[in-house]
Amino acid sequence: MEEEKEFYFKTQNLSVGYNRKPILENISLGVYKGQILTLIGPNGSGKSTILKNLIREMSPLGGVVVLEGKDINNYSSKNFAKQMSVVLTEKVKTELLTCRDVVAMGRYPYTNYFGKLTPEDERIVDESLESVAALDIAEKDFSQISDGQRQRIMLARAICQKPQIIVLDEPTSFLDIRHKIELLDILQNMAVKENVTVVLSLHEIELANRISDWVMCVRADGKILYGTPDEIFKDEIIRELYDIKNGSYNCLYGSTELEKKTGTPKVFVAGGGGFGVSVYRRLQHFEIPFSAGIIAQNDCEYTIAESLAVKVISEKPFEIFSDKSLEMAKKYVDIADYYIDAGCPYGIVNEKMKELRQYALKNNKIILDKPDDYNLRQIGENIG
Ligand SMILES: Nc1ncnc2c1ncn2[C@@H]1O[C@H](COP(=O)(O)OP(=O)(O)OP(=O)(O)O)[C@@H](O)[C@H]1O
């Protein structure tokens, strides 16, 4: 990681761990103002431990954490709270506090000794509640709301603090997909529009890929990779990071596929244009090995076919399907008992697929057009 200009927030040779035993060493991260850094990695790899060291909840076993050129230990508590707000997963103990009260706690670095809120503070509390779409639950008892609602209130509290940097540990874990997207949208907005720096950990790597400027991969073996999303989100790196042996993760589409079924492909799928995707996944579901073709390598379903099919007959990007590919596809039709037509329309590029279907027909293959689950289950039973 080369530093051209001074990072707003960085670590230098940071070591973190428990009871004087390091679990991760030589951690070097750096973000500029208004950027988003996401920590990803398997359970127990140490993401929360790193975050706790970044927010002064734990003391590093070695190295330093630097905020705006200054060791974070050299900030007074109040000044540190004006710079940084934190959203952790731990449940906050509250007695008889409304959601509004909890959010208002975010203003304490700015209030006087008695903690009295000014009308301006009250306005910021309302604004923060509104930004997480929680005005409707503002007067509810904080201990009587759902996990997802609690997560949004804690974010509102952090926003209310008007920080320069916000640190969040798995802020999306209890949220449904709509609220996940909304939360990440709020963070992105804070970063891009208000120049707030965001450091967070996420399990949803496809979302990490969308919002991050920097990504830190924390591997179970203690190895750390740091880079831009383009450098980090490669199928190979992600597979190794999570030690995915059965199944696959596709970085381009953020899709997860279950384990490929191997064996003689008694089914041939004529796919293309995305029409084959659901057929491949249902064949996998019924544990039926299959071959697929002819798929252009730039077709949106190519990588999914590669993840699930025993064999994919493919064509180079943007090329009209060649005789050579057709001959190869015929070989796999020969092996198969079934020819599934996924319904991709014919055009200039894939005209040879008409010939392939004729070939299957002539060779007494059972032709199925867009089969449903009932058909697929029967195929599974027939081929054993
Ligand atoms: N208080 C503690 N004392 C000793 N070891 C701890 C403590 N808290 C966590 N650990 C250990 O430190 C390692 C890293 O834990 P950490 O919670 O940082 O992982 P994580 O990457 O955040 O995991 P997850 O994705 O499951 O939240 C784990 O092996 C864990 O068992």
TrEMBL record:
GO terms for molecular function: ATP binding. Gene3D superfamilies: P-loop containing nucleotide triphosphate hydrolases. Residues 9-245 form the ABC transporter domain. SUPFAM superfamilies: P-loop containing nucleoside triphosphate hydrolases. It comes from the Bacteria. Pfam families: ABC_tran (PF00005). PROSITE patterns: ABC_TRANSPORTER_2. InterPro entries: AAA+_ATPase, ABC_transporter-like_ATP-bd, P-loop_NTPase. Keywords: ATP-binding, Nucleotide-binding, Translocase, Transport. PANTHER family: HEMIN IMPORT ATP-BINDING PROTEIN HMUV. This is ABC transporter ATP-binding protein.
